[in-house]
Amino acid sequence: MTSGPLPLPPAPPTSLIRIAAFSVVVALVVLGLKFVAYLLTGSVALYSDALESVINVVAAGGALLALWVAARPADANHPYGHTKAEYLSAVAEGVLIVLAAVSILRVAIPDLTSPRVVDAPLLGLGVNLIATAINAVWASVLLRVGRTARSPALLADGRHVFSDVLTSVGVLIGVLLAKFTGWHVLDPALAILVALNILWSGWNLMRDSVGGLMDAGVNPVTERRIRTVISEQAEGALEIHDLRTRHAGRTTFVEFHLVVASEMTVRAAHAICDRLEDAIRAEMEGAHVTIHVEPQDKAKHHGVLVL
């Protein structure tokens, strides 16, 4: 039993799609600047940095496509909406990150034995620094909006761009050291470190995104919040058990069994369900709540006791 029809999953607002579209433009600008920096210096570390920016462009395009699909309304084949498309985008981005890291390693490892001399570093590093500054500002925007809107696609894009910023800072330091110390082996060595950092970023991104596709539950802190709200707002009931949660894009599904006195009327039980749904949605915007009402003899004497 539920207390009325479930609302449809909230589609990503148009503003998120516009942000994703602008992210593609930013990624293209940064890519162009980084390749200019590589051409000016011949640095394999800067090449690795530019190669990661190719993935940024593809990832930004994937995020845009995912948000566009997720914005489609629920239909007969997808009654719960299309919000999981954002997780697919994040998984694909993780795979692309790993492929970029492998490409960097293929270029950098041979250069360990015969490192190249870095030419004209100051101009090239200046161009790279401008690209890094643009990325830093945009990463902060993506992360802030992604957290506020609970958008897996924008969060994945923001984390990737922020990882690119850290990589670029390390590359800038390493290339300067290689130029002014004469230890040119620092250039490919740093490129290898960049590749390993990208691999780690890609692994974490794929792990989190696959968790969403596999209907992972909410984190322990959020579950405690849900249990507290239920316990405080279920007056008139006896017990709540078999609480289950899962994420689907920006939506959190909450399901549980509500035990009431056997003689309670349907109207009274329905009123408790209404109160619980309203309280949970007030605590977690966009939550979908499904409640199965059971008579007293179905109590399991565990779960959430009503205060």
Defining traits:
307 residues; disordered N terminus; alpha+beta; 4-stranded mixed β-sheet; Alpha-Beta Plaits; Alpha-lytic protease prodomain-like
Chain-wise SSE layout:
Layout: H1 14-41, H2 44-70, H3 85-111, H4 121-149, H5 152-181, H6 186-213, H7 220-233, E1 239-248, E2 251-259, H8 266-283, E3 288-294, E4 304-305
Parallel strand pairs: 2-3
Antiparallel strand pairs: 1-2, 1-4
Helix pairs in contact: 1-2, 1-4, 2-3, 2-5, 2-6, 3-5, 3-6, 4-5, 5-6, 7-8
Outline the structure in words:
This is Cadmium transporter. The chain has 307 residues and is of the alpha+beta class. It folds into two domains: 200 residues, Up-down Bundle (Alpha-lytic protease prodomain-like); 86 residues, 2-Layer Sandwich (Alpha-Beta Plaits), CATH 3.30.70. The chain is 65% helix and 9% strand. A four-stranded mixed sheet has the order 3-2-1-4, covered by helices on one side. Strand 1 and strand 2 form a beta hairpin. Helix 3 packs antiparallel against helix 6. The N terminus is likely disordered.
According to CATH, the fold-level topology of the largest domain is: Alpha-lytic protease prodomain-like
Helicity, in percent?
55-70%
Radius of gyration over C-alpha positions, nearest whole angstrom: 25 Å
Helix-and-strand structural type:
alpha+beta
Order of helices and strands: HHHHHHHEEHEE
The best one-word shape is: elongated
Q: How far apart lie the N and C ends?
A: 22 Å
Output the strand order for the largest sheet. Answer: 3-2-1-4
The CATH architecture of the largest domain would be Up-down Bundle
**Count of extended strands:** 4
> What is the domain tally?
2
